[in-house]
Design goal:
heterodimer; A: 5-stranded mixed sheet; 5-stranded mixed sheet; about 20% strand; flat; B: about 110 residues; mainly alpha; 4 helices; membrane (chain B); DAD/Ost2 (chain B); endoplasmic reticulum (chain B); transmembrane (chain B)
C-alpha cells in the first residue's frame, strides 16, 4: 500500500509539474478525509511512536474527523507514562507527549507539573543544538497553554534568543549545531518556531532590533524559494520539498502570531505555497500527508495573509445544454471566502492567438451554493479549447484578515457542442473523366444499406460537410472510412477536411495492390469523432462490390486473419537453430597409428644414446646431493606431465599456476644440484 | 661410369662414416637429438598430408616446436665444438657451462 501510495504521489507531483501555465487546483475535500482515515488510523489502535501519534491526531483534528474515542486509550497511556516521569525520557519524547496531550487532553488541570517544567527549563539552559532548543522552548509553550497554573516565563530570554540566532547563516538558513557547518531550510523553519516561542514566553519585551534581524532572515530565506511553471512556489532541501516548505510555513505562522508588528511577506509567494500543497493531491505517505494538511491549516489561519483559491467543479462547457459556467472561490480548506468579485478577463481560444472571445465579463454570485457563475456566452463562442483568465478582487473594507489571491488565474476550458453533418454522399466515379456512375445520398444518423459496385478502373468518393453550431467548418480529430472484406481483411482510410468540406477519394487503380487483389463484397464503415463533438458517430454505410483483376504471381498474399481474435496471443512457432556443421575428423584408428609412429623416433633416440655409451656416472651418490638431484629430475618429469594434462583437460590458467609453483620449486632444487655438481667437479680438478 | 660413381659413393660414405666416428661423444648426442626432432616433425607433416590440416594450429605447433628445438640444438653444437675455431670469440660466454645454460633457457 505504501509503494502504491508513493507511486501515486510521484505521479501526482509529476502531473502537477508537467501541467503548463494553466491548471486547476481544488481545495481540500472529502476525498482527503477518507484517505486520511486509511493512512492515519492504525490497525491495532496504537501508534509506533509519540511523534507519529501526534502527526496522525493533528491531521485528523484539522480535517475534522473525530476518531478520538478509538485511539485515545493506548496513546493516552503512553502520554501519561512519559509525563509522569519526565526525567527518564528525552526532551523529544516530552515534547511530543505534551503535543499529543494538547489534542487528546489526557492530563490537564490547574496544577502545573513541576518536574516537567524544571526539566524543560534546564533543557533550555543546557541546550547547544537547535533541536534541543526547539523541543524545550516549544514544550514550555505547550505547558503554558495546557496547564492554567502559574505563569511560566523564560528567565533570560534575550540570551536564549541570541544563542539560537547565533546558529543562523546569512542566506537565511539555519545550522543544526555550531559544530556542523551544514545548513538547511528545514532547520530555519524550526528556528522560527523556537524564536516565536521565546518571544511569547519572555517576561518583558525583547529588544526590537533582534526581532528586526529575524525579519531580515525571513526575507532572505524567501529569496531562495523555488518555483514550478504553473506558479507554485516551494522550498527544497534534503528532507524533501513538502517537509521543508511545511516547516517554514509553521515557523512563519508562529512568528506572526507572537509578534505584534506585522510580518510582510510577498503575497504571490504565499498563494504559490498554497497552490504547491494543493497540487500534491492526496499523498500516500503519512508524514507528507501531515505536512500538507498542517501547512495548509497554517496558511488558512494566520496573521500575515490568507490565500484564496479559485476552483471549477467542471471545466467543460456544453453549448447544447446551455448550463452556466460555475466558479468557486474559497480558502484552501474549502471554507467560505469573504466578499469579493470575480471577473472573466479573457477567454483565449487555442486557435487564434491573442484575440479574446469574451472580455471583462463580471460573474454573478449565488449565495446559496457560494458559487460565481457565468450564465450566457456571447454569440461568437464556438466549440473548441479555450483558456479562461479569471481575476479576483477582494472587498478590502470589511475584513480583519488580509486575504490574498493570484493576480490572474488561467484555467483550461473545453467547449463542446453538436456538430451538424450535411450533404453526406457517396459516389462511384469513372476515372479520368470524373463522371458519376452512381451516387447515393447518406443519412449518417442511421445505419444504411447502400449498395454500390465498382471495378478497378473506377473511384469511390465520399464527401460530407461538418459545421459547428456557429456555422464554421469543423475539422474533426478522427475521421476514418473502413473497408472490410468478407474474409475479414480490413483497410482504413483517412477522410481529410479542407476548405469547405471533408472528402475522401479512393482510386482503386492505385489501391489494387493494397487490397491484395481481393474481389468481392466490402462493408463500408464511417467513424467521425472529436473531443468537442457531442454527437460523434460510427455508422455502417452499406457495402460495395469490388471487381479487381487477378492476383499476379509475385503479389503479396493477404495476411491470415485469425478466426479467433485472441489467437494473436497464442505462442508463436518454434525457431529451429542451424548450427555449423562440425568438421570431418579422420578415422580414429589412423590417428592412433600415427600416435604410435611419433613415439618411434623417441625410442630410436634412446637406443642411440645407449649405443653411444652415454652414462650417468656423475649422478651424485651422497645422500644430500642425490635427493636434490632426484627431486630436480622428478620436478622436470612433473612439468612434462603437466604439459600432457594441459593438452588433455586442464585450461591455461590452472596450468600456469601449477607451472609457476613447480618452476619455483625446480629453481631451488636445480640450484642445489648444480652447486653439488660444481663442488664435485672442483674436487676432481683439484684432486 | 656407373660403377665408378657407385664405388665413389661407397668410398665417400665410408670416409664420412670413419670421420664421423672421430667426433666426440657429446657432439654425437646432440646430433642424435637433432635427428630425433627432425624425424618427429617429418612424421607430423606426413600425417597432415594424409588427413588434411583441420586443426591447423595443432599442426603448426607440433612441427614448429620440433624444428625450433632442432635449430637450438644445432646452435649448441656449433658453440660447443672445440674444433670450430672461427666461432671462438663470438660467444657471449666462453665456458661450457654458460653455453649449456643458454641452451636450456632458450628451450
Amino acid at each position: 500500500m505504501m509503494a502504491g501510495g508513493l507511486a501515486r504521489f510521484v505521479v501526482l507531483i509529476l502531473a502537477a509539474a508537467i501541467c503548463g501555465a494553466a491548471s486547476v487546483f481544488q481545495p481540500i475535500s472529502d476525498s482527503h478525509r477518507s484517505a486520511a482515515l486509511d493512512v492515519f488510523v492504525p490497525v491495532d489502535g496504537s501508534y509506533k511512536s509519540l511523534e507519529e501519534a501526534y502527526e496522525a491526531l493533528k491531521t485528523l483534528e484539522i480535517l475534522g474527523i473525530d476518531k478520538k474515542s478509538d485511539l485515545s486509550s493506548a496513546t493516552c497511556e503512553n502520554v501519561v507514562k512519559v509525563l509522569a516521569s519526565p526525567s527518564s525520557s528525552t526532551l523529544k519524547d516530552v515534547f511530543y507527549a505534551l503535543s499529543v496531550n494538547g489534542i487528546l487532553k489526557c492530563k490537564s488541570g490547574e496544577d502545573v507539573p513541576k518536574d516537567i517544567v524544571s526539566k524543560l527549563q534546564t533543557g533550555v539552559k543546557d541546550a547547544k543544538l537547535l533541536l534541543d532548543f526547539y523541543y524545550s522552548v516549544r514544550g514550555l509553550v505547550l505547558v503554558k497553554e495546557q496547564f492554567s497554573g502559574t505563569d511560566i516565563s523564560l528567565g533570560d530570554a534575550e540570551t536564549v534568543f541570541r544563542s539560537i540566532k547565533a546558529l543562523s547563516q546569512s542566506d537565511g538558513r539555519w545550522r543544526y549545531s555550531s559544530n556542523n557547518p551544514e545548513s538547511s531550510t528545514f532547520a530555519a523553519g524550526l528556528a522560527f518556531e523556537t524564536l516565536a516561542g521565546v518571544i511569547s514566553l519572555a517576561p518583558s519585551e525583547i529588544d526590537n532590533s533582534l526581532i528586526q534581524t529575524l525579519k531580515t532572515s525571513i526575507t532572505k530565506l524567501f529569496d531562495s524559494i523555488q518555483k514550478y511553471d504553473d506558479g507554485t512556489f516551494y522550498f527544497d532541501e534534503s528532507e524533501g520539498p513538502i517537509s521543508t516548505t511545511a516547516s517554514v510555513i509553521r515557523g512563519l505562522k508562529s512568528f506572526a502570531a507572537s509578534e505584534s508588528t506585522g510580518l510582510n511577506l510577498p503575497g504571490d509567494k504565499i498563494v504559490g505555497l498554497a497552490k504547491f500543497f494543493l497540487g500534491v493531491g492526496i499523498p500516500g505517505d503519512a508524514k507528507d500527508f501531515f505536512n500538507q494538511i498542517d501547512a495548509l491549516a497554517c496558511l488558512e489561519d494566520n496573521r500575515f495573509s490568507v490565500p484564496l483559491i479559485l476552483s471549477l467543479p467542471s471545466t467543460v462547457i456544453s453549448l447544447t445544454k446551455k448550463e452556466p459556467l460555475k466558479v468557486k472561490v474559497s480558502t484552501v480548506f474549502g471554507s467560505k471566502a469573504p466578499a469579493l468579485s470575480v471577473k472573466l478577463a479573457q477567454a483565449l481560444s487555442s486557435g487564434s492567438k491573442g484575440s479574446s472571445v469574451i472580455n471583462n465579463q463580471e460573474l454573478k454570485f449565488d449565495a446559496e451554493s457560494a458559487t460565481y457563475f457565468l450564465e450566457s456566452f456571447p454569440k461568437n463562442f464556438d466549440v473548441g479549447k479555450y483558456t479562461f483568465v479569471f481575476e479576483i478582487l477582494v472587498d478590502e473594507s470589511a475584513n480583519e484578515k488580509v486575504y490574498i489571491t493570484e493576480a490572474q488565474t488561467k484555467v483550461p476550458i473545453s467547449a463542446t457542442g453538436a456538430i451538424t453533418i450535411e450533404n453526406a454522399e457517396i459516389a462511384v466515379l469513372d476515372s479520368d473523366v470524373g463522371s458519376v456512375e452512381s451516387q447515393k445520398k447518406l443519412d449518417l444518423t442511421k445505419d444504411e444499406a447502400v449498395s454500390l459496385s465498382a471495378n478497378h478502373l473506377q473511384k469511390l468518393r465520399l464527401s460530407l460537410q461538418l459545421t459547428t453550431p456557429l456555422g464554421h467548418v469543423f475539422k474533426p480529430h478522427q475521421a476514418f472510412l473502413k473497408l472490410k472484406h468478407e474474409s475479414q481483411v480490413e483497410h482504413i482510410f483517412l477522410v481529410k477536411t479542407s476548405g469547405k468540406k471533408s472528402e475522401l477519394v479512393l482510386d482503386f487503380l492505385g489501391l489494387v495492390e493494397k487490397l491484395y487483389y481481393l474481389s468481392g463484397k466490402y462493408e463500408i464503415q464511417l467513424t467521425i469523432g472529436d473531443a468537442s463533438m457531442e454527437n460523434s458517430l460510427l455508422s455502417n454505410i452499406g457495402h460495395i462490390e469490388l471487381d479487381l483483376p487477378e492476383r499476379p504471381e509475385k503479389a503479396a498474399r493477404p495476411p491470415l486473419q485469425p478466426t479467433d481474435p485472441y489467437s494473436r496471443y497464442v505462442p508463436k512457432a518454434e525457431i529451429s537453430h542451424i548450427f555449423r556443421v562440425p568438421e570431418k575428423l579422420p578415422a580414429k584408428q589412423l590417428s592412433l597409428v600415427f600416435l604410435g609412429l611419433i613415439v618411434l623416433p623417441f625410442i630410436g633416440f634412446l637406443i642411440g644414446l645407449t649405443r653411444l655409451g652415454v652414462n650417468i656416472k656423475s649422478f651424485p651418490s651422497s645422500v644430500g646431493a642425490a635427493t636434490s638431484a632426484l627431486l630436480f629430475h622428478g620436478g622436470i618429469g612433473a612439468v612434462l606431465l603437466l604439459y600432457v594434462l594441459f593438452w588433455v583437460k586442464l585450461d591455461l590458467f590452472t596450468t600456469l599456476k601449477a607451472l609457476s609453483l613447480l618452476g619455483v620449486f625446480l629453481l631451488f632444487v636445480g640450484h642445489r644440484t648444480l652447486s653439488h655438481l660444481a663442488a664435485a667437479s672442483n674436487k676432481l680438478k683439484s684432486a | 661410369m656407373v660403377k665408378s660413381t657407385s664405388k665413389d659413393a661407397q668410398d665417400l660414405f665410408r670416409s664420412l662414416h670413419s670421420a664421423y666416428s672421430a667426433t666426440p661423444t657429446n657432439l654425437k648426442i646432440i646430433d642424435l637429438y637433432v635427428v630425433f626432432a627432425v624425424f618427429t616433425a617429418l612424421i607430423q607433416v606426413a600425417y597432415m598430408a594424409l588427413v588434411g590440416s583441420f586443426p591447423f594450429n595443432s599442426f603448426l605447433s607440433g612441427v614448429l616446436s620440433c624444428v625450433g628445438t632442432a635449430v637450438l640444438a644445432v646452435c649448441l653444437r656449433i658453440q660447443v665444438n672445440k674444433e670450430n675455431k672461427e666461432f671462438k670469440h663470438k660467444t657471449v660466454v666462453t665456458n661450457l657451462r654458460g653455453i649449456v645454460a643458454m641452451f636450456v633457457i632458450a628451450v
